[in-house]
Design goal:
262 residues; alpha/beta; Rossmann fold; 8 helices; 7 strands; binds NADP nicotinamide-adenine-dinucleotide phosphate
């Protein structure tokens, strides 16, 4: 019988994280999902994971809390005894113009995106020892585009991508592959919540410039993360995959390429 593999997905209770947890469960991995506040959503994700015939573990973790992250890693070790895949997905920030950013906003954003990533990878390495491991970080298009009120998160995501490249080199000799996926806009409850009343206008603007003709769905990103966690992608190291239906290629509405404008 094949060995059971195990994954840890931060923010696996909602949005892209939840879709990723389910995609990994479908591939036969036991999955630990973390959440911060919404326990009901995490329990719901766990039930959906277990429906796929694998074991789910639910962990309440605030990524700003080093002791909490350490405790979560200990639970993974106690319950699964190993880890094969780490997906660093959760993020938190204050969506503000940079002129309004305070010290606590900076600290919160960098701690959740960068400090926790370093701590999680350091903690996962011993749990991956002796077998191929995969680390996938979830970046975002604010890492390379100037998006309104995303200045702080964009800086954190750019830093995350830099960490991915260095970890990829440092961990290559341990057979741990480290990569990132960089989504464009994805239709999640968080994205809608933060956009508020501007959502319909933002969505229409993005769709118009996306060659694939729609917004991303959580499952679009989840299947790419599953690929980056699978034996099929072992030759990818330290790469950032842009997953956006072609949006990052565009400066004009996609329809103009179809002869709409002379
Ligand atoms: N949606 C997009 O358009 C988009 C585009 C590009 C990149 N991304 C990136 O994709 C990732 C997922 O985004 P998303 O839209 O699915 O939702 P999200 O709001 O970024 O993530 C939701 C998950 O993160 C958890 N979480 C929030 N703050 C946390 C903290 N301080 N510590 C630990 N966990 C925390 C939430 O738990 P609770 O529910 O319990 O609070 C929930 O499980 C993020 O890194 C985001 O930057 C998203």
């Amino acid at each position: 019988m094949a060995e059971r593999r195990a994954a840890l997905v931060t923010g696996g209770s909602r949005g892209i994280g939840r879709a990723t947890a389910l995609a990994l469960a479908e591939a036969g991995l036991d999955v630990a999902v973390t959440y911060k506040k919404n326990e009901a959503a995490a329990r719901d994700a766990a039930a959906a994971i277990e429906k796929r015939g694998v074991t789910a573990l639910v962990l309440a973790v605030d990524l700003e809390d080093r002791a909490g992250v350490a405790a979560a890693l200990q639970r993974v070790e106690a319950d699964f005894g190993r880890l094969d895949v780490l997906v660093a997905n959760a993020a938190a920030t204050a969506f503000k113009p940079l002129l309004d950013v305070g010290e606590h906003h900076l600290s919160r954003t960098m701690t959740t995106s960068l400090q926790s990533f370093i701590q999680l990878v350091q903690g996962c390495v011993p749990l991956m020892a002796g077998r191929p491991g995969s680390v996938v970080a979830v970046s975002g298009w604010d890492s390379y585009r100037s998006l309104s009120r995303h200045g702080l998160l964009g800086a954190a995501k750019a830093g995350l991508e830099a960490l991915v490249r260095s970890f990829a080199v440092e961990l290559a000799s341990r057979d741990i592959a480290v990569n990132a996926v960089c989504p464009g806009p994805v239709d999640t409850d968080s994205a809608r919540y933060y956009a508020g009343a501007t959502w319909p206008q933002m969505e229409a603007n993005w769709v118009q410039r996306t060659p694939a003709g729609r917004l991303g769905r959580p499952e679009d990103i989840a299947t790419i993360i599953r690929f980056l966690s699978s034996p099929d992608s072992r030759w990818l190291r330290g790469q950032v995959l842009y997953a956006d239906g072609g949006l990052s290629l565009m400066t004009e509405p996609a329809a103009w390429f179809e002869g709409g404008v002379a």
